[in-house]
Design brief:
The chain contains 15 helices and four strands. With 337 residues, it is mainly alpha-helical. The chain has a domain at 49-266. The strands form two sheets. Strands 1-4 form a two-stranded antiparallel sheet. Helix 3 packs parallel to helix 9 and helix 4 (84-104) runs parallel beside helix 6. The N and C termini lie far apart (43 Å).
Length: 337
């Protein structure tokens, strides 16, 4: 039995169907780019395709990737956060001070570490809450709010560290080390945490009313208000979510070096925003995906890894490459609605 081709219903334009197909093709761009870059890396250096190098790339991606998941929600809602790197630095310093004080008071290492982790996530949520309230209730532009807190957070860390570094006590460093250096089923712990955060982020964005509200606000905030969406509440929750992601990333980062200094988290905001934008999220908000963000984060890490392995250009220009990538993607998005 031969079926006739499906015809569009009378009075219904096929344009939305074409738009969806085109969006699907465009959404595969980051993945295609990642595959091409990986093939290029394998041709340029034989060590690139090794399992150890792949695990190293994914582990280093985990910190920025987790933050990028939260940043994806913020950008989709039409906002921005320039302070995540400085926020991570201050959270790292605060949790190290707390853990050292707890260990000095006779707490068992595990209890001190758990207290530090709770402090990191709690501070991240608190800082995100402050951002959300200033933006939604204070009616201040996100760019201005987070630009101001970018300086505030890093200045306070510099003050607490007296311009130097805040170092984790040696007895805690060995107990805390497995959080970064440990692995499960051959996969480093930070990668597992990154996967869990990404899956939860995708579930929240695509399968909950909150996720739909975030996208609606980014598409047209005024229409969302007319549709009885609690815009201010959703915005606050979005920045709290980003703050929690920063706290989780900091928990994983601290055992790597066991210290926090004024240079901790430097340019993390650039990397997180680049990962979201490269992943296909619209700069003006309203559209984006966690899957694309994850691919974008991995893509940027792979590019950095290739530059380190091949010395095509100086490693000091990695941030410049990311900056060029952001500008290029923004250029191609300039006509996107």
């Amino acid at each position: 039995m031969q079926l006739e081709p499906t015809k569009p219903m009378a009075g219904v334009s096929p344009a939305p169907m074409v738009a969806r197909r085109w969006a699907g093709l465009r959404g595969g761009g980051p993945l295609a780019g990642l595959v091409l870059v990986c093939l290029l890396g394998a041709m340029l250096n034989e060590n690139f395709a090794s399992l150890d190098n792949a695990m190293n790339v994914l582990t280093r991606t985990a910190f920025i990737g987790i933050i990028a998941v939260g940043m994806c929600f913020v950008i989709i809602s039409g906002g921005i956060d320039l302070s995540v790197g400085s926020m991570a630095a201050l959270i790292a310093g605060a949790m190290i001070l707390l853990m050292n004080a707890a260990a000095g008071a006779g707490w068992p290492p595990l209890a001190a570490i758990l207290a530090g982790m709770a402090c990191a996530v709690g501070l991240g949520a608190l800082f995100g809450l402050a951002h959300g309230l200033l933006i939604s209730k204070g009616r201040i532009e996100p760019f201005i709010v987070t630009l101001g807190t970018l300086g505030i957070f890093r200045a306070y860390l510099t003050y607490f560290s007296n311009g130097g570094a805040i170092t984790l006590d040696g007895s805690l460093a060995s107990a805390y080390g497995p959080v970064y250096y440990g692995s499960w089923l051959g996969v480093p712990v930070p990668v597992w945490v990154f996967v869990v955060v990404a899956l939860l982020g995708g579930l929240i964005l695509n399968r909950t009313a909150y996720g739909r509200y975030v996208q609606a606000i980014g598409s047209n905030e005024q229409v969302a208000r007319y549709a009885a969406v609690e815009v201010d509440r959703v915005k606050v929750l979005t920045y709290v979510l980003l703050g929690v992601c920063v706290g989780i990333a900091t928990v994983l980062y601290v055992p790597r070096l066991g210290s926090a200094s004024p240079s901790t988290g430097l340019l993390w905001e650039l990397e997180a925003i680049a990962a979201v934008i490269v992943g296909g999220t619209a700069l003006k908000g309203g559209a984006g995906s966690i899957t694309g963000t994850v691919i974008g984060a991995v893509l940027l890490s792979v590019i950095s890894n290739i530059l380190n392995l091949t010395s095509i250009i100086s490693v000091y220009l990695n941030a410049a490459v990311q900056g060029f990538v952001i500008i290029a993607v923004a250029f191609f998005q300039r006509g996107r609605k």
